[in-house]
Structure formats: structure tokens, C-alpha cells
Amino acid sequence: MSLYYKIFKPKKHTLKSGKEVYEKPTLTIPILILLLLFTMLSVRVTNFSMATLSKNIHKLFAILSPMFKPNFSYFPSIVGPLFDTIKMSFLGSFLGAVLAMPFAFLASNNMVNNKVINWIVKLLFSILRTIPTLVSALIATYIFGLGAFAGTVAIFLFSFSYVGKLTYEQIETVNMGAFEAMISMGFTRTMAFFQIHCARNPSLLFINCPL
Questions:
Q1: Within 10 Å of residue 161's Cβ, how many Cβ atoms?
Q2: How far out from the chain centre does Cα 37 lie?
Q3: Which domain of life is it from (predicted)?
Q4: What are the C-alpha distances in Å from 124 to residues 98, 111, 117, 189?
Q5: Do residues 157 and 88 make contact, with C-beta atoms less than 8 angstroms apart?
């Protein structure tokens, strides 16, 4: 990077006070070059061909056209699986949100003063968020077999990771002055947090907080 700054020297600006400041050159050029190189490498590795894409583009419409002719006689056979999907979504989301709460406390550096625990839990949330739900469902299918339970596990992991991240970020914005005052009054750390945070957001994860 120092070589780049030697080639593209910073611009000098003179302020009204007479002080000279230097503006670093933009990194747009090297970033674009890297993106171009990675794109070319990806095209080569995947054997992407624009000619093949343009030649077979009509097959896309062959797949889409049957979707605009629904067969309503098939509807009774999907009612059961449809309700199974709704139950999977509700149960997976509910369990993920509930279990995310204690982990969010562990990830919050103003609630748990242990950087190792904070880092491990935040890393867990980050790893789970990077895994697409379909991939989680595929892995769960290999472990638990094909069925509603595998889908519930995939939705649970998705809800757990995202609710946990959003919750610990909210926890870290708590007014620590009021928090410490409630601790001195005899409240536990958990009770003090819910009293303060739920007063600001009573709908937090459907938890009723006495105000």
C-alpha cells in the first residue's frame, strides 16, 4: 500500500488558516483491479460462457410458463404440508428467539465483563449468520433425516443468530448509569436490565415487563 501512495501521491490542500493538509488518494483503482481479477478467475474456474447463456436463455421461460397455469385440483394435497410449514416457522422462530436471549447477555460486554466469552458468543452468532437457511436445512436433513424437524432446526438456527445479534447490540446501548443505580437498590443484573430496557421497548421479544 505504501508503494501505491508513492505512485499516486496525496493531494495537498491549504486551509484558510494557512495550514497544509494532505488528502490520501482514493483506493477505488486498486479495488476495481482486484474485482476484475477475481471476476476473471471466477469465470475461468466455473467455465462460464456468455454464448451458452444467450443460447439457452429461452429455456428459462420454458420453466416459468407452467407457473402461470396453476392446477387447483392439487390444492387439497398441499393443505397438510402447508400447515406443517407454518408450524415449523413458528416453533423454530420462537425457540430461536428465546434461546438467543441468554447468549445475547453473554455476548454483551457491559453485562458480562469477560472478553473471551464475549468474543466466543459473538463469533458463534457470526458463523451461524453466514450459513444460508437452505444449507442449514440440508445439513439438518443429513443428521436428522428428511422431515419437519430438519426444517425446524434450520429456522431455529437462523432466528437464533439474527435475534441474538440484534439483542446484544441493543443490550450494549443500555444506560449504565440507571443500570448501576438499580443494582445498588438490590436488583439483580438481569432484573435491572429488563426494567430499563423494556421501559424503552416494552415489546422486546414479547416479554411483559412490569413498569
A1: 22
A2: 28
A3: Bacteria
A4: 16, 18, 11, 23
A5: no
Query: How much is the pLDDT for 4?
Result: 64
Which of 99, 205, 102 lies closest to 155 in space, CA to CA?
A: 99
Is residue 92 within 8 Å of 156, Cβ to Cβ? yes
pTM summary value:
0.58
Task: Return the C-alpha cell found at 122.
Answer: 459473538
Grid cell digits, residue 165: 445479534
Residues near 117 by beta carbon (within 8 Å), at least 6 away in sequence: 106
CB 105 within 8 A of CB 111: yes
Please list the rounded mean pLDDT of every run of 10 residues in the chain (211 residues).
66 76 75 90 86 81 75 81 88 91 85 85 89 86 85 91 87 73 75 65 45 33
At 13, is the secondary structure helix, strand, or coil?
strand
Whether residue 22 contacts residue 12, with contact meaning beta carbons closer than 8 Å, is answered with yes
**From the CB of residue 200, how many other CB atoms can be counted at a distance below 10 Å?**
11
Amino acid making up residue 21: V
Per the listing, cell 439438518 goes with 140
CB 110 within 8 A of CB 171: yes
| Region of 74 on the Ramachandran plot (φ > 0 left; ψ -120 to 50 alpha; else beta) | alpha
CB 85 within 8 A of CB 152: no
167: Cβ contacts below 8 Å, ≥ 6 apart: 100, 101, 104, 205
Residue 159 C-alpha cell reads as: 432466528
